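Quick question about two entries, pasted in order.
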Amino acid sequence: MNEKQPFWKITALEDMTARQWESLCDGCGLCCLNKLEDEETGEIHYTRAACKFLDIGACRCKDYENRQENVPDCVELTPARMRSLHWLPNSCAYRLVAMEQDLPWWHPLVSGDPETVHGAGVSVRGRVVSEDDVGDLEDFLINWALPGGPIKRKPKKRYAED
């Protein structure tokens, strides 16, 4: 049987349509967390302080189309940048596809449900505060958002009883 492969397995990032590219975002919100870089080691430390434009409940930018104007240092994710943005979490679909890896079970393109990213414990929903509500970012360091951080197990399939 020759099943059709999903676009992310057969299309290079640079060849994706705008719609395909945008659909890779799983809605986790991790890229919208403020991060601190250790000047000596270059190590990136995530904080639980989210960009003030992140809708913390929906895990989406409140003004996505104008994000570069609203936040000049907001990094626009592009195919050309994917191979150099080492601060993106290992769970990021853009990073996974750039590394020619498959998307996880909880990604909305795989599960068909935009809520699985939250149910799997991958998103920032319910775990962060707006940067407007914090003082010193060093007081808000976290380790659960580290690349390769904790992800809940895939739920077992339930079968109807006979």
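Here is the second entry:
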Amino acid sequence: MEFQFATKCIYGNKEGFTGESTGAISFPIYQTATYAHPEVGRSTGFDYSRLQNPTRQQLEKVVAALEKGIDALAFSSGMAAITAMMELFQPGDHLITEVDLYGGSTRLFDNVSKKNGISFSYVDCSTADVERYVQDNTRAIFIETPTNPMMHVTDIRKMAEIAKRHDLLLIVDNTFLSPYFQNPLELGADIVIHSGTKFLGGHNDTLAGFVVTNSQEISDRMRFLIKTVGSGLAPMDSWLILRGIKTLPLRMEKAQENAKAIVAYLLTEPGVKKVYYPGIEGSAGYAVCKSQARGFGSMLTFEVESRELALHILKHTKLIPFAESLGGVETLLTYPMTQTHADVPEEVRLANGINERVLRLSAGIEDVADLIADLKQAIGSFA
């Protein structure tokens, strides 16, 4: 029986765990490091929690079901997931990578992956002729869509066609839209990345990351890597993400509704010069996003008229916190220049449009009238 999305958020594909016989509705937290064996040559299916844990396994089954993959692996953070995934590549390999990436991904690629002999071509995959960057040693295309923070939308199907022609992996960071709005594996991707800290967890109370795939070969290699590098998600954190996912559809719909209303307000605000949101009809990414996703999400970026106004807003909001991260029930304002993208080289950051006047907003699930009132008073109090 194939369940609908909201049901999968609660039960996954209803694959039972034979070790649980109490009938507990909330999946138990198996807070154990190791497991007893009946005898030599016989196992309960669990040996050591670095390899696997029942709570983490249940979470992985749910996420795999949501992304329509054959396997999902839960890591201690989104960056831990990407770091482990990069071990699929060898010194001398080359990747084509979206230029407008989360700053932590860029930091990893520039300071760790390059040291390990992997090279990168940073490209605006939403507009560039990506195929001309393919080299003999290219092994993968890595994209975010929409991108963080400038909200560029890349055609996943088009990237998949290029990847298949050249025998490359297509890796898609799907954090911004979550599996509720977008399923890259169905569009031709080989690997999907999530920072589970964000929309999947949804409550800003724990860290997590995921690698999801529809390839048995990749699954086998990632299973070897997660037990080797030891960055699997702990039982308590696995349970928190499981709990968060149960309300994913409700949160995504409400947060998107709030984001659309905030965008409509910002477009009328004289102090705001640009608003970046893929749901703005006629904007650069609107048609592509509509063709490959079921919604536009709750992330938006806007540029105000001066650095002074940007700093004033961050200091004078009374409801909306000035904080890193996104995807939680609380609306958050982020200053990419000094927070998420502080380690991106200045020339790259500025070329991407991330300047001192740019703010990123993650809409939460509060009453939107309160959110707009807070932004209005913060902007309006600027002398």
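Reply: The domain at 248-380 is CATH 3.90.1150.10 (Aspartate Aminotransferase, domain 1). The first helix runs from residue 5 to 11. Hope that helps.
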